Amino acid sequence: MNIFSLNNSLSMAINSLDKNLRDILIFRYGIGGKRCFSPEETANSLNISIKKVHILEKKAIRKLRNPLVFKQVVKDLESMHSIIWTTLSEAVSFAGEIVYKSESLEQTFDKLQGEILLGIKCQYDTQNMWLSENAYELPLAWFRSEYPEKIVLAAVNETKNILKKISLPVTIQFLLKTLNIDDELMKLVISLVDPNLKFYREYTAKRPLSTMQLRTIRIHLILFHKYLSNQTQCHQIIKDYNSLYTDDHLVPETAGKVMLANPHLFCGSKDKGWKCIEQATNVLTQEIVNKKTSGKNPKDEKPCYFFERPWSETTAINIVKEILEEKKICHLSDISKAFMKRVGHRYVVVSVSAALRREDNFKVMAPGVYALYDCDCKPDDLNELYKVLLNNRDCYAYIIERYAGAPMNIYPLWTPYMERMWCIWAKKHANYKTYQSLLYIADPSLWATGENLEKWNEEKKWNGCYYFESDLSYPVWETIPPLQDIFTIVTDSKLKGYINWKNANRSINVLSNRNKSASILFILIVLEVIIPAEHWQKLHYFGPKLDDFISRLIDEIRKKGFVHWEDNAGLYLKRLICDKKIKKDMGWVTVNDYKKLVRILNKEPVNQQNLEDIDNAPKQLELPFHNI
To answer: Which three-class secondary structure state does DSSP give residue 206?
Structure first.
């Protein structure tokens, strides 16, 4: 009834305006059930400028504010304040409602009809002014409540002080007793203290619920419902926890951290055992669990203290962090298996790889082996961590990289001590190719002394032999790699201080066991950016033309933001390659491969007949040299 009255009074007021002013208000506020038009849309519809729209809108509102015209509109609007507030606010409880300042007020007020929006604009000018006039205001939000403002504000301030002194989660029962308020007011207070606070059963904590808070709630519920005031040993708590939950695995270290970090919920020690301090509202727990389990097979029913992980707040990163927190370091394949066991059908296994690419959370300890960045490895743990790498796959990865000239310290677990452990392990457990190749690249002087060093040097002398060299599986000249990839590899390798096929692949995000980068190394050798090696899988040293190559391409990038072969710099490099006239093999780069590369750059067919003498080929590419 009130909205009809407002519509009538506003219609009369609007009809008193000139047609051009009426049209502006109808478009901008959606009068008469139409949608609201933006200033741009209004300008296009009325064929006027946006500036003109703003001028006419201000003029129309100024005329509507005439007391003789607007008196009835104000009266009708005031009768609707409660309806407007209910439409705008988020229902918290029977005790009150809230509009958070962090929300977009425009989107919040878009819930209202156009006539109401226009009435608020005319009387209060801004949405903030209407809220401040019709609700209590706090730094975080506006609110209304059936409780007196003083009681609400006092409870909010006291709750803030409590939460500064203790960590979350906190039991609702504790807050109710401390504040001496009822649960309806508690819901309003918690919402006003922090919009990120949420109720999780008998507890309040910040959302999204962290792993530490999840474990705190679960352990507290177990102690309260199973053991109450009894001291319980940590191993028993862990046993109960792991038998109840398949989506997480508790270990002594993490269990101890949980209980030590929450002295307001737990008391005890490692030797004497633990018990819960605060009591949860077990009636509420029982009601919630009964709702979840009603109608299910009794075998599937969970005990009243079971707390389901809020999966909507859980990310793949959280699960991977939990796995690595437990295992310290782990292979990608093992992480994937543990991940799928915990999440079931909720995520796909590719989520693991996506999570591990988040470098701010994880670090690569060795190829395909990960740990948390803040992994706290005690000296006693190191020997067990190194044992994770004692297998053929990790040993082979180490051999390949070291043969290619990579420094030992490119991964945290690639140390002299690890090389020693591999040598001892490979002698007993690996095949002869792995063992002898490992001896070939190993440096016993880094990890052995005295007679032991002599023994390993003799072993290396008589048995060290490299078996993993392989020929290229495709012609290196067949395709010309993008110049941008070549530039990326060179600049990245210069920062690292060395270049080989493995780190070249990593620079352009290609699987490190692929030989695609050999084509790039081939071109860099011809350009004298790097010096040819005996084999394409070995270390390549930087050549005399390195700095000139980088500076020339940087100049091109500054102009366009990228480089390719048809740029001035790219054409210049093509000319350099074709003018080399190489007459003898350059390490693993053969004269025949060079001739084929030149033919491709000249866009000529490649066949045996036209490769017999490169001197008979056209002496120049028809390339423009302006601005080079």
So the answer is: strand
pTM comes to: 0.78
Note the pLDDT tens digit of each residue in 507-564: 988 876 677 889 999 999 999 999 999 999 999 999 999 999 999 999 989 988 889 9
Using CA atoms in the order 139, 143, 147, 149, what is the torsion angle rounded to 10 degrees?
Answer: 40
Q: Report strand pairing: 197-200 vs 170-171.
A: unpaired
* CA separation for the pair 510, 230 (Å, rounded): 58
In sequence order, what DSSP letters do the residues of 234-293 get, joined into one string? Answer: HHHHHHHHHHH-SS----HHHHHHHHHT-TTTEEEETTTEEEE-SPP-HHHHHHHHHHHH
Distances (CA, A) of 390 to 239, 385, 429, 430, 436: 30, 10, 10, 10, 16
Is residue 617 within 8 A of residue 610, CB to CB? The reply is yes
List CB contacts of 180: < 8 A, sequence separation 6 or more. none
- Quick check: 73 and 121 in contact, CB under 8 A? no
The 10 Å Cβ neighbour count of residue 538 is 17
350 vs 432, which has greater pLDDT?
432
Neighbours of 518 (CB within 10 A): 20
Cα–Cα distance measured from residue 365 to residue 354, given in angstroms and rounded to the nearest whole number: 17
CA-nearest of 601, 574, 595, 572 to 583 is 595
